[in-house]
Amino acid sequence: MAAPTLQQPSFLLANLKADSTTKPLLQRCQDLVKIIDEYPAKELHLIFPWLVESVFGSLDGIIAGWNLRLLHSRSNEYNIAMEFLNPSGPMMKLVYKLQAEEYKYEIPVNYLPGPVKACIQEGVLPDCPLFHKKLQFPLSGLLTLNIALNPFEFFMFNFACCLITPKVSQHGSSTDSAYFVLVDTYLKYFLPSEGSVPPSPFSDSRGSVTAPSPRSSSGSFAGYGVHSPSLLKHHIFHQPSVNADPAAQEIWRSETLLQMFVEVWLHHYSLEMYQKLQSPQVKEPFSPTEEHVLVVRLLVKHLHAFSNSLKPEQLSSSPSAHSHTHTSPLEEFKRVVVQRFVQQKLYLFLQHCFGHWPLDASFRAVLETWLSYIQPWRYTGEKTNAQPEQSRTENRTVPDKWWSFVQENLLMYTKLFQVFLNRAVRTDLVNAKNALMVFRVAKVFAQPNLAEMIQKGEQLFLEPEHVLHHRQPRGYLTPGQGGSYLSSRQRVVTDMVFRVKSHVYSLEGQDCQYKQMFGTELRGAVSLLTRLIQIIAQARQTAKRISDHSSEVAANNSFLSWFGLGSSELNNTFPGAEPEESGECLKKTHEFLDRALENLCQIFKVRLGQLTQLISNLGSSQDDGNCKQLPDCIQSENGLILTDLGRRQFGGHMEALCSRPDFLGRLGRHYLTDPESNSRLKQSPMSRQTVEKSRRPRLSLRPLASYRTLLLLLLLYALGALLCFGPASSTALILAGGFLYGLLMTLFGDKLKTH
């Protein structure tokens, strides 16, 4: 086949736009592959912004693009899109082809995440180096400020924004969509656990992301807030030059992809903005969707696997020793990726979700994202840890090597746990899905060794500063220089304290008021924990009561179904029942809450006797409340038995009905009293008091036990069967006949007696 004639760039773009509305996706992709291969970068540069927008959609959401979030494997276009957007596919080839040149693509600052946009508009340099040295200053001022991105950055920015941009007529998606699979593919390609990132097919030395500098372990306590905005206020009109380390160019695409994902997906809340959001009058600037949170969880899980793939000898080496040995930039990147790039923004993101997410089962996505982050030991590549958590019947001990991770992420455990408790006490725990979430959290925190790690981290944070200064002088000597090994141990403790305090102050601010997870505040008499245990115990009993009621109704339905009167909706056997609140789900609720209580007692060292007493007190109070709704009764070996008072407790209503002089009173007397009692009163040897007692209105079912009545009913049902009436129809006719007989006797009974 002859190669197509090269067109002028303006005609090329016009033809591509025309083809986008007439040709199917397969043919359009085939044409694009030829164009990318045959046209020079100078001409491809003009169609690149349009092509990116046509694939991912416009940043304002008006243009939907290929709808990658709704494109699933069962669609015919799924494989076409995946092949075209593959990290080694035609689209990325175009990116690399343009990356080898000096091309830049502008994006309005208004489309940047809120805190980044606010910093730039206030004349403050953002903390993320991704946006350094990229600002374009138009003559009209800062209101129309743009940032200039290279082709790779531009592509990844639009790809990341595709997740959070509300599209026209787009309703939901799932984890098997083309977008979700592409995120997973890009993460595995650019952040590989094994090997290195494949090189670009075109020569390029323009990586613009600086290599992260090693964090110093020394410094004054005043420097804890390393992410404090006050330390970042470099004026944007005096931007420092970004001198990229040549060795860092090996991973500049990995860093760019990660920073772009983190900024676009997580950086919607700054510390100052979050503190303002605590006021109910402030409208939240951004509300993530369940799909958004699921993609964030995918990112968290992959980053843990990426970081845990660091070789043991490099993981154990100190930064000072590491600087004298050869380590690839990718391995160094693995060492700092979670703490340096993700922790702060993910913490604020999760804290916002915990506080603003609806109190329903959709919160499970947020919960699992949090639990994935605080359990990096699940993503070490070992087969035992690759199993789903729900399938493990016993908690595994958290290895000691994770002490430093727990301490440097203390707030992720303690603060978010307390915020979760605050949600749990306001949630309907009779719902099996909500009960499962409480069980999941309790199960994770009950892992052996984890509670001790958290307690140790809290103790380190609460170390008085003056004691540390006394322990650790500024100029200390190593054992080789005449110092003692005791001073070396003190130095290690001081370094641990510094890391914990630095972590807390950087996330919560220098003036934060820390609440202990294992302090007296959480375990007090009226604390959240005690309230949660009470609510769990109450929900257990409610679930059991509803489950027992459902079983009774199901049994009754099985009997009534012979008459055609059984309910076809066995799942909804009580008013207001939800599918997850019926049948087997309620049994699961009881099981989840039972195990959650056991785990909470294990975490906080609550004695089983205290828990049993609390539950029994709650149960007795509920039983008292239920008994007040029943007639007067006594407790026996066989359960509750009505007393004489209990048998007559509804008698007042019947006496009031029978004492009426109208037709309803006569009808009530026919059914509820014995019409022959007057004649027996004169002839009976019984005392007048006994006979008067028998004349009181009452509901008697004794006639149904007589052989004559049973034989009559059998004959009537047999007659109905001969006349082709079913059991339900025969029953209805018998009841109607009985009511009609009573009605006639009420109307004409007195006249018949006179005759």
TrEMBL record:
The keyword Membrane applies. The keyword Membrane applies. The chain crosses the membrane at residues 705-725, 732-749. Residues 196-216, 674-695 are annotated as: Disordered. InterPro entries: Sphingomy_SMPD4. GO terms for molecular function: sphingomyelin phosphodiesterase D activity. GO terms for biological process: ceramide biosynthetic process; glycerophospholipid catabolic process; sphingomyelin catabolic process. Its main location: membrane. Keywords: Membrane, Transmembrane, Transmembrane helix. PANTHER family: SPHINGOMYELIN PHOSPHODIESTERASE 4. This is Sphingomyelin phosphodiesterase 4. It comes from Stegastes partitus (bicolor damselfish).
